[in-house]
Amino acid sequence: MAGNTNMYKGDLVKWFEYYVEGIVKDAGLGTVVEAEKVESSWIEDYMRYKVWRHQKNDFIWCSHNEVELLIIK
User: Global pTM?
Assistant: First the structure.
């Protein structure tokens, strides 16, 4: 969905959970609490983010394409 790799700790994001078919299962607002680069020899390197989900009051790990940076104006 988003694919933005310029997210940092403290950023407000919209997170997404998908069914296998690519249909959005659930979504909501969250805050990035940790960001890390995943390096692998068999797939392209990517960023993943630990997100505190506001509505559910829990933490999940999201890949770069499961979060979208929100910019409040």
Answer: 0.83
